[in-house]
Amino acid sequence: MKISTVFTFTVAAVATVNAESYSEPDQAIWIDRHNYFRTTGLPWSASNMRRIGWDADLATKAATTASKCSATTSTGVNAFQSSAKNASDAIDEAVQQWVVETAVSTIKTMAQPGSNGLDVGVGVYNSYSQVVWAKTTSVGCATASCSGGELVVCEYSPAGNDGKSSWYNHGPQASQCPDGTAGQGGLCIEEGNDANNQIAAIPAGELTYQVYPSFVADVQSILINSARDIANGSVPPTTEAKVLTTDSTSSTPTPKENQLNEDSAMKPPSSKTALQARGSHEDSLPTKEETSKTTKSPSESASPVTQDSNPGPGTVKASSDTGSTFQNEVKSPTTHEAKTSEGANTKEKTESLTTETAETAKTGMSTLGLVSMFILGIAAVAGIIMFVHYRVSTQRQHDIVLDGGIRR
């Protein structure tokens, strides 16, 4: 009985330690990660997205869950078995799997909303949908050192992934905030709440858009390709429901098993390398050659997106916030570009015709020259013959005169 009591006390102590294992800068990073993907990182802008704040009680609860070394992603819980050896490095490995990879594979299967007011994500639930669940306002995370590495767990409140609701409502950012909240920075914020205050300064180079510089461009590329498929008459993406398994009593997970019942779609090759940016504390972003990632795709505009407060039906609004900007639409060539293209084509055709005409003229002149030389040659021969004949006739006439007109 004493042994059992000591063991229980030890587990509780470990849980408390794990709850405090994240320093204030790490807590600030967790909050920055979540709120970035709830604004800038959304495929379609949200009109009712609440701001997430840190909750110490949820962090303690997450530590208790993590201490069992068997947690899985379920309703209101995200879990990830990291190969990292410390809690800080495990943060971005968890975010990479929960958000970056899962978002890219999930968005490919979703139909684009056709107008404002449309619910997004009904019937599709996974770790990414929990991160962008509009009604969730608090998160607390912890980690435990298990046999496979650091087990990262985040607890959410109110819990998302209820199996029936949408992730959020599509529309201009923070345009339909719940009562008691106000729009700020694309999120609905409860004014006067201490959870809105910055926990600590985020280290240089650790802002979310710096660690995952190509995420927005990757999402944009998916949306553009989907728009092209629709324009070309291809079958639009299906919205087959994919629901989480909520079993949280499984045995110690292996790294492979800790896909955490996520969708098993192919992972983009360019996403994982973004983790190399963590820990470097450099302000400059990785180059394309080093990470195969870019902060903007070729079609991405460098100028800010102008948010129309009353877009017409069928308009898909883009998410935008500090750090990156994009528009979810295929850009058609401008009038100037079209005229330039037509002028270039006309110039090429003119040059081609001129070349052909010159070659034809050269060939024609060569033939005419040969004929002219031949005719001149004949005329010269005829002239010589006539001249000789004339000389002979003149000589004969002269001889006849000398003979007295008598021809011999």
TrEMBL record:
Start-end of Polar residues biased regions: 305-333
Residues annotated as signal peptide: 1-19
Transmembrane region(s): 368-388
This protein's UniProt keywords: Membrane, Signal, Transmembrane, Transmembrane helix
Biased composition (Low complexity): 245-255, 294-304
SCP domain boundaries: 25-164
Biased composition (Basic and acidic residues): 279-293, 334-351
Pfam families: CAP
Coiled-coil region(s): none
Chain positions covered by the region annotation Disordered: 230-358
Protein name per UniProt: SCP-like extracellular protein
Organism whose genome encodes this protein: Phytophthora megakarya
